[in-house]
Each structure stands twice: as structure tokens, then as C-alpha cells.
Amino acid sequence: MRASASKAGLSLSTFSKRVCLGFSVPSLEHQEARIELRRLKGDLGRLGGLVKQALANGADRQTVHRLLRELDTRQRELQLAIALIR
Fold this sequence. Notes:
By secondary structure, this protein is mainly alpha-helical. It is built from 4 helices and no strands. It has one domain. Helix 1 crosses helix 2 and helix 3 packs antiparallel against helix 4. Helix content is 81%, strand content 0%.
């Protein structure tokens, strides 16, 4: 039980309480994956803003395509992070 509590990043008493009450106990790996998802979501938002700004400022096609490729890369990273949680 101590090993499971440690793996979840919780004290033994907190871990025991959550298990006894039927709550889910996410592992540190799941918590780290959620943090990564939040970071990637922020990246996607910033990239979307850059694409919008580039289009509004009449940027050349090459710049817009570069931004779109980067956005696509971030979306794939997000999908991989989601797959880690499942």
C-alpha cells in the first residue's frame, strides 16, 4: 500500500482515505500527462493567434504554411499525450 501511495504522489493516509471512499487515485504519470496536455493546449492557442495575426497582416503564404505545419505538429503531440492517459 505504501508503494501505491508513493506512486500516486500521496501520503499513505490520503491514499487510504481516497481508496476507502471509492475515489480514483491517479498516478503521478497521469498527473504529469495532464500538465503536458495543458501546456500543449496553450501552445495551440498561441499558434492559432499567430496564424490569425499573420492572415490579418497579409503575411506571405510561406509564413502562413509554416505556422500551419507547426500547429499540426502540436496537435499530433496533443493526441499522443491523450493516448498516454488512456
